[in-house]
Specification:
By secondary structure, this protein is an alpha/beta fold. The chain folds into two domains: about 10-55 and about 295-385, Aspartate Aminotransferase, domain 1; about 55-290, Type I PLP-dependent aspartate aminotransferase-like (Major domain) (Aspartate Aminotransferase, domain 2), CATH 3.40.640. Helix content is about 35%, strand content about 20%. It has 13 helices and 17 strands. A hairpin with a 5-residue loop joins strand 8 (about 185) and strand 9. It starts with about 20 loop residues before the first strand and ends with a helix.
Length: about 375
């Protein structure tokens, strides 16, 4: 058999891939096949929270491989998944955890759990939301161009204006099973949700007998400077969905369920072949312990405060910039024009950034990024925007 050359034409064309082939990484940099280093403010779209070649992840993978067991069916017990679940719920609001493979799967599972617990079917989401691309999660995602080719999607899903209390109160009825919201919207333009609105949703869900779901797939696990973003609002959900950084780049998602919702579910109500397997759970446990360390989170908050202040200074000097929003190490720079050209220009200067909607530059570097690398990246952004 002849050697097969690397050729993207064999991959389904659902991604507009750009840039070089990346073959390695170290710290906050990706390394191309020609040896060129790129400072990474994308981090695998907020996945690589510990950057590249981090010893915590490398050592956990090797330790898991040493057991000779990569996968065991969920028909049987394994220690790594049980330990991970116990530590996650201990850090959150108690209850139980369900493991899957992605954020979209976590949200799909949360919708099912809400329906089983409540006996109702309605779901309410908000403008600017992004919850995934499966049939229920896509129906709750405020991207009409994403939804239209695949309609009809899940029935009974309403998307209402974010922050509009009157419209929300009309939408959330006694037939509503769940309300889902990102405490800090990611794909919708990096938009923090006011704590007062989250508290309003909590009270409304309690009144109407609906489950409140916080989607922290992108903003959770240290990204905003606290382990979970909802902690900064002082509002506790009934379910929390997690994914992206959870297993350090290995595919893993999770739903954390309050005790009442967990009690409504039993064997056969939901399942996954690979969720919570011993290899990914071993890695995820070490990632969780690293990020949950108070000193680690304090460092994220300190770097995030510096980054926010620096970006606001940059915005004040650049008429192209309309707004700067974010928390921790998750920021958006809204422009008065499409952001794609800025992303391209930054990549040509060896800085990787991405968009969050057509006009917003999104910055989600590794949480381990150094102050020097933050300085270097912002300098490139200032040069590009000038």
């Amino acid at each position: 058999m002849t050697a097969v050359q690397s050729d993207a034409s064999a991959l389904l064309g659902v991604y507009a891939r750009v840039g070089p082939h990346f073959v390695a990484g170290e710290g906050s940099e990706l390394i191309a096949e020609d040896g060129t280093r790129y400072l990474d403010f994308v981090a695998g779209i907020a996945v690589n929270a510990l950057g590249y070649n981090h010893p915590v992840i490398r050592d956990a993978v090797l330790r898991a491989l040493d057991t000779g067991v990569v996968h065991v069916s969920n028909l049987y017990r394994t220690e790594p998944g049980e330990r991970l679940a116990a530590e996650l719920v201990a850090h959150a609001f108690g209850g139980q955890a369900f493991f899957c493979n992605s954020g979209a799967e976590a949200n799909e599972g949360a919708f099912k759990f809400a329906r089983k617990w409540s006996g109702k079917t309605g779901i309410v989401a908000f403008t600017g939301s992004f919850h995934g691309r499966l049939f229920a999660s896509l129906a709750a995602t405020d991207r009409p161009d994403y939804r239209k080719p695949f309609e009809p999607l899940l029935a009974g899903v309403q998307i209402v204006p974010l922050g509009d209390r009157a419209a929300t109160a009309r939408a959330v009825t006694d037939a509503t099973a769940a309300v889902i919201i990102e405490p800090l919207q990611g794909e919708g333009g990096v938009r923090p949700v006011e704590p007062e609105f989250l508290a309003f949703l909590r009270a409304l869900c309690d009144e109407r007998g609906a489950a409140l779901i916080f989607d922290e797939v992108q903003c959770g696990l240290g990204r905003t400077g606290t382990l979970f973003a909802y902690a900064q609002a002082g509002v506790t959900p009934d379910m929390l969905t997690l994914a992206k950084p959870l297993a350090g780049g290995l595919p893993m998602g999770a739903v954390l369920l309050s005790d009442p919702i967990a009690a409504a579910l039993g064997p056969g109500d939901h399942a996954t072949t690979f969720g919570g397997g011993p290899l990914v759970a071993t890695v995820a446990l070490e990632v969780l312990r690293t990020i949950a360390d108070p000193e680690f989170l304090s460092d994220v908050r300190s770097k995030g405060a510096w980054l926010g202040a620096r970006l606001r200074q940059l915005a004040a000097a650049q008429p192209r910039v309309k707004a700067v929003r974010g928390k921790g190490l998750m920021w958006g720079i809204e422009l008065g024009e499409p952001a794609a050209a800025v992303v391209t220009a930054a990549r040509e200067r060896r800085l990787l950034v991405l968009t969050a909607g057509p006009n917003v530059i999104r910055i989600v570097p590794p949480l381990t990024i150094s102050q020097d690398d933050l300085n270097r990246g912002v300098a490139v952004l200032a040069e590009v925007l000038a």
